[in-house]
Structures are given as structure tokens and as C-alpha cells.
Amino acid sequence: xxxLIGNVFSLVSGSRSSKTFKPKKNIPEGSHQYxxxxxxxxxxGSGNLRQAVMLPEGEDLNEWxxxxxxxxxxxxxxxxxxITEFCTEASCPVMSAGPRYEYHWADGTNIKKPIKCSAxxxxxxxxxxxxxxxxxxxxxxxxxxxxxxxxxxxVAKTILKRLFRVYAHIxxxxxxxxxxxxxxxxxxxxxxxxxxxxxxxxLIDRRELAPLQELIEKLGSKDR
Length: 224
Hints:
Blueprint: H1 2-13, H2 32-45, H3 49-52, H4 61-81, E1 95-96, E2 102-103, H5 119-135, H6 152-180, H7 184-200, H8 213-222
Antiparallel strand pairs: 1-2
Helix pairs in contact: 1-7, 2-4, 4-6, 4-7, 5-6, 6-7
Protein name: MOB1A kinase
GO molecular function: kinase activity
Keywords: Kinase, Metal-binding, Transferase, Zinc
């Protein structure tokens, strides 16, 4: 596992591939959040993912969730970036996670009524929307002493619920491409980290996880 974890971080930091779908979201160096991110990377390096997602002693839950949400955005950004050429209007005319799950996009402000669109269009909307949330200092304050808003947890839950859909689409529609690129270890380790994190803090409703339920159970059983 240690080797895989290291690979995920080299993948995320861009040493293996500089191809991201959207610009990477940087946590400012020297900030407390940057220290938390470094702590997360260090515990991930130990190979114990269940332990790595736990709230470090004495830390603020909102801040821990914020740092990890940014990190997952960057990981998914990089993973999806490696397969964008295979995810096209022609190959993926609808945003789906297998035949039983189809997603329509709405953000509640610009697009209020859910629209049916291709997977690349949906993921572009989704990642742009997430990026806008992460860049909003009133939602994701990066300065010490600036409090998180009262609705932070519900915002974070919506972001993570939507990021899950990108994993689900990649697994259902593009896993053969991931295998050809020899990226399955990165994808599996990143997804396992993501799932353990959302399970630890009960951040995504079980129904939302249904498209990858079998995989989630498999990843969990390996870790017991």
C-alpha cells in the first residue's frame, strides 16, 4: 500500500503527469491548512487509510474537511485529466454511472432546472462549480481566525457528493482506458481514501454511493 500511496501523491503533485482537467487548487504554504495537508500526506504514507482520515487531535473538524475536500478535488482533477480524450460527446452523450444511474446538472443559481448533458459537459460544469466554491473565501476561508460559515458542512457534503459522481463515471465508463494507462492503482487508492473519509464523517448519503456499492464493500472488506 505504501508504494501506491506515494504514487497517488506523486500523481497529484504532478511529477508523473502535468495534465489536469482544471487548474490545481493550491493551499497557501505556511498556512495552518498547509500544515494539515502535510500531516494528511504523512499519515497516508504510513499505509493505514482508516487512521489517515481521522480528525487529528485538537483540530477543527471544518478545517480538516476543507483541507481534504481541496485535496480530493485536486486528485479527481488529475485522474479525470488523464482520460479526457476518451470522455467525449460521442462516447458519453449522457452523464452516467452504468445503465441505472444518469445525472442531470443544476447548480441552483445559473442552471436551476436540471439539464441533461454529455459527461464531459457535466464534469466541466461540476468541476467549475466546485472550483468556484473552493475559491470563495466566505465558504472556504484560508486565513487563520476567519470562521467557517454556518452552512459549511452542507456545502462540503454537496461538493463531495458531486465529486463522487466523477469517480463513478470513470469506473463505469472508462475503466478500460484507466487500465491501459496503468492508472488503476492511483484510481483505486484515491477512491479508497475518498470513501474512507466520507464514511468517517458520514458525508455522503448511502443512496448516492449505490453506483459503486460493490466496489466500496470490496475495498472495505480488504481493510478489516
